[in-house]
Structures are given as C-alpha cells and as structure tokens.
Amino acid sequence: MSDRIRARVFVSGRVQGVYYRANTRDAARTRNVDGWVRNLDDGRVEAVFEGDEDAVEAMIEWCHTGSPAATVDDVDVTYEEPQDESGFGIRR
C-alpha cells in the first residue's frame, strides 16, 4: 500500500447547493477513492481523498469542474499522511 496517498482539497466558487458533494461522492466511489466531502460555513467545499495515487490525482482534477451546475473558481490541495479512510461519504 505504499502508493496510497491522501489529499485535502478546498474548492471555492459556486459549489454549494449545486449537488457538488453528491457528485464528488459518486465520482470518488467510481474511482475507488476513500474519504469524505462536506460544505464549509464560508461557502467552500472541503474534501479528503485517499487511495491509489492515480485515482486521487484524477479526483483532484475532477474537482476543477465538479458537478454540472457548479462554477469552480479555485482548488487548493494539501497532501497529508494517509489515515486509512474506508469508503466515501458526505459529512454534514
């Protein structure tokens, strides 16, 4: 599992109220990426992606477009040590 990575992503723009979290969950599950996604009080969306490097990088790239109704202005990524996330869910 040495190729397992973890990325924390903050997405800004019109990303709340446009099914961004649900679409992120579906995209992550399709790519077998573990982690979670949630809305922040400041209007951004925060997500944690953990898994195979190629799959995590694909999720980060996906975040630049996101759900069809979203308008993404910025994606800020920080890499962290994996924490053995299991499954992918939406946090409230």
From TrEMBL:
Pfam families: Acylphosphatase. It catalyses: an acyl phosphate + H2O = a carboxylate + phosphate + H(+). This is acylphosphatase. The active site is at 21, 39. It is an enzyme of class 3 (hydrolase). Residues 6-92 form the Acylphosphatase-like domain. SUPFAM superfamilies: Acylphosphatase/BLUF domain-like (SSF54975). Keywords: Hydrolase.
